[in-house]
Amino acid sequence: MTLAKLGVEGHKLAKGAQRNPRKVKRNKCLFCCSLQLCGNNPYVMTRCTQLLEEQMSINFIDVNLGCPIELVYQQGGGSGLLRREKVLESVVRSMSNVTNLPLTIKTRTGVYTDKNIAHTLVPKFRDWGASLITVHGRSREQRYTRNADWNYIETCAKLASPTPVFGNGDILSYEDYERVSIDYPSIKGVMIGRGALIKPWLFTEIKEKRHWDISSSERLDILRKYVNYGLEHWGSDTKGVENTRRFLLEWLSFMYRYIPVGLLEEPPQKINQRPPGYRGRDDLETLMASANCTDWIKI
């Protein structure tokens, strides 16, 4: 399944969904996909839900309760909704009532590091109409620091039963995935975020239960494939090239963190393990490991 955060403000979508249909266009290669809505207004979120079901070929709709970005948080969206339970209830109930698609929720453990609240909310999400809940094992304050708390996610999964709970946080290898599957039996699945940006071949590793010591040329082929998708999606004019380049550079800001398996002393790499300066096995591998954005432009 592929879950994409909707990159436009909800009120703009509600007022004119047809103005920029490319932002909500489904790629033909996706067999199961969803859009994640982030907002703070029950009416707008509900109207967006109706529009997406009417105009998009999607399999479910997700509510974003995890975004830690300051502007979003201060406006009461993303993890900011965790502070406004009455509004949150109205959002979830209203969205659930107007759609025939499954409604899912992605949440953090809470707002503050020392005050987890997700365990009190997941039973309510179930009662309000959520079909599945994903818990990111960090608070809003933690952002992406510290390790995800999978023990807490397991607790939430037990409390939400029979509604399935997925876990999110720190999966960067098939060993990470296997460990979660074995150690936390109440968690029914895993959502992968940063791991897929750093290692887009991670899903192949999980499926085949092996490390893939991917070559620099194979990684370049993946980037080339993305560029072709981007130009097909946005167009090959100046604006299309600019959009494709912009998102490619954002992606490279994650991909450079990958440390080739063949260079690791103790695999697997951990997600918060930053690569030391190293020379790759060829010039392209060295270039791809650079944290310098001017080198990303060269790529």
From TrEMBL:
Pfam short name (any one): Dus
InterPro entries reported for this sequence: Aldolase_TIM (IPR013785), DUS-like_FMN-bd (IPR035587), tRNA_hU_synthase_CS (IPR018517)
Keywords (A to Z) from UniProt: Flavoprotein, FMN, NADP, Oxidoreductase, tRNA processing
All residue ranges annotated as the DUS-like FMN-binding domain in the record: 31-229
Enzyme Commission number, as recorded: 1.3.1.89
Keyword Oxidoreductase: yes
Lineage: superkingdom: Eukaryota
Catalysed reaction equations from the record: 5,6-dihydrouridine(47) in tRNA + NAD(+) = uridine(47) in tRNA + NADH + H(+); a 5,6-dihydrouridine in mRNA + NAD(+) = a uridine in mRNA + NADH + H(+); 5,6-dihydrouridine(47) in tRNA + NADP(+) = uridine(47) in tRNA + NADPH + H(+); a 5,6-dihydrouridine in mRNA + NADP(+) = a uridine in mRNA + NADPH + H(+)
SUPFAM superfamilies the UniProt entry points to: FMN-linked oxidoreductases
Keyword tRNA processing attached: yes
Cofactor: FMN
Molecular function via GO: flavin adenine dinucleotide binding; RNA binding; tRNA-dihydrouridine47 synthase activity
EC primary class: oxidoreductase
Family: Belongs to the Dus family. Dus3 subfamily.
This protein's name: tRNA-dihydrouridine(47) synthase [NAD(P)(+)]
Organism: Timema genevievae
